Amino acid sequence: MINPEDLETVRERSRIEDVVGGHVTLRRGGGGSLTGLCPFHEEKTASFHVTPARGYFHCFGCGEGGDVFDFVQKINNISFSEAVELLADRCGVQLRYTNSDGPRTEPGLRLRVLEANKAAAEYFTEQLNAAAGLPGRQFLDGRGFDQDAAAHFGIGYAPQGGHELRDQLRTRGFRDEELVKAGLIREQGWDFFQGRVLWPIRDAGGSVLGFGARRIFEDDRMPAKYLNTPETVVYKKSQVLYGLDLARANIAKKNQVVIVEGYTDVMACHLAGVDTAVASCGTAFGEGHSRMLQRLLGTGEVSAGEVIFTFDGDAAGQAAAMKAFKDDHIFAAQTYVAVARNGLDPCDLRMADGDAAIRDLVAQREPLYRFVMRNVVSRYDLDRADGRLAAVRAAAPLVSSVRDKSLVRGYVSDIAKLVGMELEDVRAEVRTYQRSHPRNERPANIPGDSAPMPPDVPAATPGLRLPPPDDRELEAERATLRLLLHARDLFDDDFNHLTIEDFTHPAYQALFAAITAAADGPQEWSARVLQAVSDPTLEQLVITMMVEPELREPTKVYAAEYSAVLRLKPLAREIADLRSKVQRMDPEKEPAAHAKLFARLVALEADRKALLAVATGA
After folding, report:
1. Cα(434)–Cα(292) distance, integer angstroms
2. N or C: which end of the chain has fewer CB within 10 A?
């Protein structure tokens, strides 16, 4: 807790007209109030009022209002304690903290760290423009950033010597222990950053919280390509975003934020006109970052804003998208993904294709749900019926978690197209999932790299197991085999074109193989089949089926009908698989392949029609 006396001192010294005036142009109004355009919503006529005598502000347009602490909280998207600390730093008040364990923070430390960071940022900028900063300038130039861009983003350069920053800040009155606590030098006295290009990381108010540094020399003693300020009283990597100071006003104005992965990506986006871009600093984008941006975007309806993630097209980018989806529920805004087709990040994309390519990348965004669904579906073998079904069942939780229920129908249609299944079949699977889970429940585990894949073959089982004789799914297989055992002569020499693939149960497959392998001889047909059988369980199956009665008088027509029924099943599966492939293809991109598959599909449909006529006796 902040000492109440210190709190009042900060309030007295922070005149609301001065604090608000740093963000809003105020003009004298009636009744001793000041007026201006509200910084919290767009307006053309001033409805924002500040009353210095009372220390309050109020907007008659959007309803925002409060005291000086409320204003700093809202305008900087920070907590109450952070707002008090920011104002205390500004007016030179050393806050005292107390809790059940006694003092929490060294008085004045936060202010001294911020002052040291500011001085370090100025020194690094000077060094970039000095003779020693040539390698840094060459690095930036190679990324497409000129001197004006470097100045706009405050980029600097840390000399290689190892003590230059420490010695410089000593002359400005900073003690070594303060610089250690600021993360600017190490315990041994060496500069924390040496021989690197640096980006100052600022809060929404513009205060320098820390730095991000990029290796540019091959003999750098630190192996990591990027190095960030360690955790300090002001720098918490899970609570800071690079570029927020430049993007904050634009995010609020456009109700959009673009989340990129690196410092140069932020620069490229801003220079290309995408001025709502930010990036996490030395850590993955997480829940703390999400909540920070949501406060800045507001908490309106689902359609109130956009959060656009840019990811690399590789496996790491897909994993980042899956993580972003897990935190997606934090945002009231719609979430999107923008991935360049060539897999380039924004910086490389700008270098290759110019500023317009970045603007097009963001404009061509797609919903995060759709990106994640495509990623999940791609993990399954869509050329197989069980693979398509598994893909739909894996995607069903994603669709069921969509907040805007008006979008569900479109997402179900997307899955059907991605997988290559009938829309009603996909809708039925989604409904099944929804019935078995509470409404609006988000999936606890999003399918990722460890998602179970459909096996290529059925799992092996010890010994041969007999199917139930009354299994309706296998009725045609059993009846055909029974007819083969009873009256082989009703079938032609090629067994009416039957193959082992026409049977699905392992026992029936083994029995058909024994029938086709039965040798000629003087014995009865059933005896020759039993001689071809080596498994005792299969022998029992032959004996059982030999005594089962036929449903009607065996004839060649009867045998032809059952053979046709049996052959229809694998043909139907082949047609479904082929139709799925055709449905997933883009005929404009693959015209020859699409035409070939379509012709094959037409031929199979003709075969199916002919078999159906035989099976039904038409």
Report:
1. 32
2. C
